Amino acid sequence: MFPTVSLAPPRFTTADEVPASMALTETRPDTDPEVDAVPAVSAPSTTVDSVLGTGDHKTIGRLWIGGGLLFLVVGLVFDVLANAEIADLSGFAIADSQDQLTQLWSLGRDLLLFAGIMPVLIGIGTYVVPLQVGSSSIAFPRAAAAAFWIWELASIILIISYVMNGGPAGGRVDYVVLWTLALGVMVAALGWALVCIATTVLGARATGMSLEMAPVTSWGFLVFATGAILALPVLLAELVIAYIDVKFGFLPTKADRSGLVSIMNSVNLAPALYFVAVPVLAMMVDIIGVHTGRPARFHRTILAIIGLFGFLAYGADMLSFAWRGRPLAFDNGVLVVATLACALPVLLTLALAGESMAKGKAKINTPLAAALLSGVMLLAGTVTAVLGTIDPILAFIEDIGDTNIDFSLDVLGTSFHWGVRAFVVGAVVLGLISAVHHWGHKIWGRSLDDRLGLLSVLAVAGGTVAWGASSIVAGFLDQLGLPTADSAGDSTVELMNGISAAGAALVAGGVALLLLNVFGVLVGRAGSAAEPWTGATLEWATASPPLPENFAEAPVVSSHTPMIDMALAEAAKDNDEVAS
Amino acid sequence: MSTAVTTDISVRETLSGDLPVAPPARPRLLMIGTAFACAAAMMLMGGLIGIYLATRAEVIASGQVWLPSGVTIPLTQPNMMAITMVFSVLIMVWAISSLGRGDRAMAYTALGLVLLMGFSVIAQTGYLLTIMELELASDVRAPLIYGVIGTHLAILGAAMVFVAVMTLRALGGEYSSKDREGVYSAAMFWYVTVFLYMVVWLAIYITK
């Protein structure tokens, strides 16, 4: 059990104030920290060098966050357009044809995950994880920088391929080929960036920090990265075959290429989509601990729960590989069990975070509000997804009992699953807002504006509920998952589609507000320069923004809350001085 | 006399426990990163071979034959490549062992031989694809076969670049008998490449 202490260890705002040693024990370190640390990359000399030629994880992290947020807004705008188009099912208003509608929908889907959500997560991981584990740099800094630039280029090429009538429903074969190529390169670049993060957690931790002492956020990123490194190559394999098929004329017509749309379904639907929520769940635990002044108890249990969540999401994705030919693979046991089980770790994590809320002193601000709502949205998504398993479970009971059950929700292939996705996406976006506000001062040296932050949280939370709930209701009314606008429309379905569009627009607006907030900090017109809070993990032991080599001396730790240990040691020292 | 006293004090200090600090354990980042890369390569090839085998099973279940008429896969080249790859593993072990013993000349020779064997596998694959007479644009089966073989060649190329870079670094003195991490990492990736070839050999060349 943690001692009840105020989370106000000394704040080190300059390199000079950092104590000579952060050692909290009398134990001699096993290794020489100077040598054990990853060599820091020297700062480039010019402004252009500092961006293009940098190997500093802090600059790379900022680039990922900025680029990812920008593409996230763009991706959400395409989602809004696709939903707005089907708000009137009698014909086409925004798109010219069904193919264009499919392109809009598909572009939004591709950008949201691989150009928006994952890059921002990688940005936060690239920036925060080395600091949390007490490393002077990220592992393979040049490779991490190369991954960013390759991803950036591939994302732009992906958009160009759609503009030039490529994409899965495109008419120009050369640009369909370009689409598969760009998507494949994006996936490879994201995977490589995650290798750098995972290696940092495994190999560059501070002296004394065993893996079970790793901060929850760093552990979450390790689970996220490990799973993604194993799962993304399988998606890449499908893209390789798609590339060869299109390039060498085996899919000459649009009808032949219709299956290309479903390639990305496997990573966009529950439970596989939950993999992007793994680090968000972990960040939620850390952030709530800081803002309530009470880190969550049962550290190792939390690590195990987050590991279980990652295993269920990825495990189901991998094992369901053989069923991927079908549009929505909810008809096999592994997916059903994983979908049912995924709600449990989310619930447990929320319960442990709730204890911090109940026993700590919570002050509602943007990071805390966003983290809590993120957990609630994720729970809503994972619990709602369970409804999708009812039909396959009933079918299974019919098979083994040789009976006929006259009941079916009939949501297979409908927008129900995209409603669940909207809840998960909303949860992740809220998690990103929480993280960017929480570590904003550490990243840019100024706090983000809290009122603007709360506004963005409200917009995203409200938008997520509207977007997700209306898509789920439309799914029960037989709205297809891949939208079609040329069918005779039910007015209720049209209303639900309109609400979905409005919800997605609100989420996009919330992310745009976050982007505006970050821009305000960058130009020095927003936020405060004073460090707003401090936490129990190592990133709070250095200046904001950190020194080029992160720490004046390589830290040595003896528990998973080194800053609390330090505060206790300082207090004990003060008491000794008073007594003497 | 004074020199003898100084030496005596130094010896006594040493014997009294003031031992020099042991060389620090460096983080084996390259090994960890390579392990992740190996896992990714295995999943990529696993995915491709999974698609290949699933498609093959569907075609055969529909009553057709898998390989189009006129296409034959001779066994001489695949078997020779398999033997070459297995030998390259032994030679890689020899390279690491030589580096460990400080026999640098032998280590460079062995690493050079590994690269040569890699080139020979690429050349044999090229020849095999020529004599198979499987036109890429001729049949829906061809992209799968070329996809699997081509991806393995790409992984082999990456492994050869990795081995070459680590050989050059060893030549430059970065790796020695005390620190073989880079060469170990390259060897790990090489072993995975060989393992993947054996899977391709079994799934495509032997099973046909």
Description:
- The complex is a heterodimer of chains A (580) and B (208).
- By secondary structure, chain A is mainly α.
- In chain A, 63% of the residues lie in helices and 0% in strands.
- Chain A contains 18 helices and no strands.
- Chain A is globular and about 85 Å long.
- In chain B, helix 3 (76-101) runs antiparallel to helix 6 (181-206) and helix 4 packs antiparallel against helix 5.
- Classes of the chains: A mainly alpha (580), B mainly alpha (208).
- Chain A binds chain B through residues 30-32, 35-36, 38, 139-140, 191, 195-196, 198-199, 202-204, 226, 229-238, 240-241, 244-245, 248-250, 321-322, and chain B through 21, 24-29, 32-33, 36-37, 39-41, 43-48, 50-51, 54, 136-137, 140, 142-144, 146-147, 151.
What is the strand and helix layout of this fold?
The complex is a heterodimer of chains A (580) and B (208).
Chain A: H1 33-36, H2 47-52, H3 57-85, H4 98-132, H5 141-163, H6 173-203, H7 216-247, H8 265-268, H9 278-292, H10 299-319, H11 333-359, H12 366-387, H13 390-401, H14 416-438, H15 440-444, H16 450-476, H17 491-522, H18 562-579
Chain B: H1 2-15, H2 29-61, H3 76-101, H4 104-132, H5 141-171, H6 181-206
Structural features:
heterodimer, A: 580 residues, mainly alpha, disordered N terminus, B: 208 residues, 6 helices, 76% helix, 0% strand
